[in-house]
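Cross-posting from the modeling subforum.

Setting up a comparison between two proteins and wanted a second pair of eyes on the formatting. Protein 1 (sequence, then structure tokens):
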Amino acid sequence: MHPDRSFRTDDRALMEALIDEIGFGMVFATTPDGPRVAHTPLVWTQDGAVQFHLSRGNALTRHLDGMTALAVINGPEGYVSPRWYADSEQVPTWNYVALELEGRVRRMDPEGLLALLETLSAREEARVTEGQPWTLAKVPESKLRALLSGIVGFELEVQAWRPTFKLSQNKPSDERERVAAGLEAQGSRAVAQLMRTLAP
């Protein structure tokens, strides 16, 4: 989390929307083998937890149950050039959105894992614009059992939210607009849009 308080938010709905919109993140934990990270889809449960699944062979899988871990969701980002400021004494920086979620992890039972996969595939299939949505029902039961045996589901109960929405809030509004225009011109449209809608 960035130390500048102007880059933080207490807007829980905004943070939950970020989890759902991005839908993918990293889970970090310190294990007896050293620090490890896993990259995984994330599902917000609406009741204070994020769920995810890992390959049974992942370096974190055998350690996570009962541990405190950190899930990180990275949102839009972009390099900010000093050329975009009217003030010539500015230096380069980076605007970005990130959310850190710290909490205790528990291993899910097989029914919970199956429900997670159904929720995850329904969420992502709803974003595919053509054709009929894919469902788990399309997988033969014997093959589904084999696939499920290769993954493990987890739920992280969020005990600490650490958001960073670094969107030039520490700059005057005219400078913010110049930065947003510069980011947009460079192809970083999402972070430019957030600067215009979320920054004061």
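Protein 2 (same layout):
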Amino acid sequence: MSADYIEVAYSRNTAIFARISVVSSALGLGLLLLLHFIQPNLSPLSGFISQYAVGKFGILMNVAFLSFAISLASFAMSYRSLSPSRLLRTGVVLACISAIGMLLGALFNTDSADIMRASPTTIGMLHNIGGQLNLTPFVALLVTFGVRHVDAVKPLWRRMLTISVVVLSFTLGFVITAAWSEGDFGPGSITALFGRLMLVSYFIWQYVALKCLLKNET
């Protein structure tokens, strides 16, 4: 691809989807923060966010997952025709897959810790499949490199790159600590913390990526 930057024409729908994505992710993160305070019994170090859905205020976590699903789908719609790059197209597809994963997380709650250890339910397994479909770290990396020649992204590209590396670092921390824990995520495990940081940092990256579009709206 040429090193020259690509001019992009923005449609009204691009801005609409971008705004929906920003608002949805903000709602999801806000609910997650609220749950952190109203369910303090769940440790942010060893308690996965999915476990909020099992508690008294579980509906809030379901809404948060749904918000994340809408945000990812809207992000894909806003970025889908931004550049001819294969990397971008792949990133958009992975964002759609991640949206499906978040939707599964919203529709099917995880099992409680006791049930998970004894005999996982079908609903719990569907929730786990949704978690495995969360490919957001790769979305950030692929989209960042896929739009590096887009003129509108130029002012914020280095910021997008830096945050995408942070997201990937938290992902590696999650994978390494999960392997180290060998399935035991009780007290002393910090795998859940890396999972939370990975999610939050991804949506910070997504906000920056969408800001590029909104600043160049026509």
